[in-house]
Amino acid sequence: MSERAVCVIGTGLIGGSLLRAAEKAGREVWGTAASEATAAEARADGFTVGTDLDAALRRVVETDALVVLAVPLPAVPDVLRRIDAIAPTCRLTDAVSVKVAVADEVARYAPRARYVGGHPMAGTTESGWAAGQASLFADAAWVIATDDGLDLEVWADVAELAWACGARVVPAAIDEHDLAVARISHLPHLLAAVLAAVGAGEPDDDLPLALAAGSFADGTRVAGTRPELVLAMCEGNRDALLAAVDDALGRLGAMRGALASTGGLAATVKAGYAGRQRWAATRDPMPERIRLDGPGVLAELREIGRRGDVVVGWRE
Amino acid sequence: MSERAVCVIGTGLIGGSLLRAAEKAGREVWGTAASEATAAEARADGFTVGTDLDAALRRVVETDALVVLAVPLPAVPDVLRRIDAIAPTCRLTDAVSVKVAVADEVARYAPRARYVGGHPMAGTTESGWAAGQASLFADAAWVIATDDGLDLEVWADVAELAWACGARVVPAAIDEHDLAVARISHLPHLLAAVLAAVGAGEPDDDLPLALAAGSFADGTRVAGTRPELVLAMCEGNRDALLAAVDDALGRLGAMRGALASTGGLAATVKAGYAGRQRWAATRDPMPERIRLDGPGVLAELREIGRRGDVVVGWRE
């Protein structure tokens, strides 16, 4: 395993956990925070974190480090401009929850960077440096962009960082990633919001909410997430999310028609039961070991992701 | 508190838990099961349970017991016909999750019964006698039908049974109950089914399910319920459920329009956040004590339910 140094831009829940996990794995790590207050919190915990992005990037050039963008999507372009100015050909990945939008911005603002996108799929409803923990990525899925033409050396850097943090790598094309997270992360947030609003009903009648128990509590849990976090995540994945919303609207409309005409809901309920059973069957993915050589290696890696399996290390 | 004997028809999760809870509270209890196999399981646990409904109902007449119907909605008419034949004026309540449909059937098949509907709002995704437990109703909401003209003596019998089982009574008109459960129980099951089907996506691609974590797991939990239980519950509440589905479709359609045009989701996400906050605020209802006298007592009881409060005992 390489011991490549890691520079983390952004010290929120994900960036802060990454600094802790990579340091615990023995890596040389440093980072930058958006505010001096946060940087001071991180330094108080023993980490090399400042607010001088240019200085952090000069150290990247000196050490050939891997840069991890862990800022919200709207903050990405400004960071990329500094990368293009100071460390234009650096090894670059990110931890943003959408991948096509970030790739577009890298192509526009830092086109010489050796970029391989990433998405460690871990999180809590907490946020900020203090919420971070070295164990956040343990056994989590860490998606790595696996499109044709990307830099295999940086792909390996990102994979080794993911494994060092305890995660399992899921290889995926970036458009397939965005469609997948629209279905299983962004749509759930929007359906939870709709359900919470319908359940709340009229302001002068608390009977529905008073009777709400398990099914409502679970179905609306993520509606309690801070709205700005949900908006940043969902609005950055608009095209893929529209496809998922249209799929849901189509199924809900067909169900409404069946309920009004025959009164039957069997097709809806059985498809949902089958989907949940299939999800349960994916909870124990096959751990694969790989080699990054051969002509069709990226296509083979993408197949691992489509099978629902995970990559846990190199094959000798 | 009265020590009225209790006859439970049906020994699934709810009926089986009710037998255990009422016996633990010191009541004389017996019941009937749909199959000899289930009856034998219940007897092995020390309960008086057979399959001879007529014999159980003759004992009801002898002891002036309270009958609790705890069978699925489709099985209700057959039981009511036997009640009309053997114990036509018995004290009768039920534990079915819809109330207008059961009231209609009582009016049709056992019109002389002294019927006051009930709905103990407790459950797990488990079912059957073995899944039952005496503590199932602890602190649960137990809705009691509170429409004008009903038998106050039987209302008191049902309330005392609910309290004996550790539940808190929520008084509600049956049509308001059905609209409320459509919003906070039946709609959540259908949205969970839709979400599970959308998340499962195409049969040859497990990438979405492999990436599914907290938001999908919670949002689809009740899609894992046995389909026939969900169908019996939802299809029996068709009119109220149509209203809830239309509310959800309207909100989802408006959200789709906003996402496609401005790309903004703030209205949806903020309404959902507010709904979830309002739900959290109803988690600690005011415990009320009541007297069952005075001219407007039933209307006053219904107001307690609309305020989201609960009745925990008699006022001296």
UniProtKB/TrEMBL annotation, chains A, B:
UniProt EC number: 1.3.1.12
Record-linked InterPro entries: 6-PGluconate_DH-like_C_sf, NAD(P)-bd_dom_sf, PDH_C, PDH_N, Preph/Arog_dehydrog, Prephen_DH
Biological process (GO), any one: tyrosine biosynthetic process
Record flagged with keyword Oxidoreductase: yes
Domain of life of the source: Bacteria
Prephenate/arogenate dehydrogenase domain location: 4-289
Residue stretches in coiled coil: none
Record Pfam families: PDH_C, PDH_N
Keywords noted in UniProt: Oxidoreductase
Chain ranges passing through the membrane: none
Gene Ontology MF term list: NAD+ binding; prephenate dehydrogenase (NAD+) activity; prephenate dehydrogenase (NADP+) activity
Record family assignment: Belongs to the prephenate/arogenate dehydrogenase family.
Protein's name in the database: Prephenate dehydrogenase
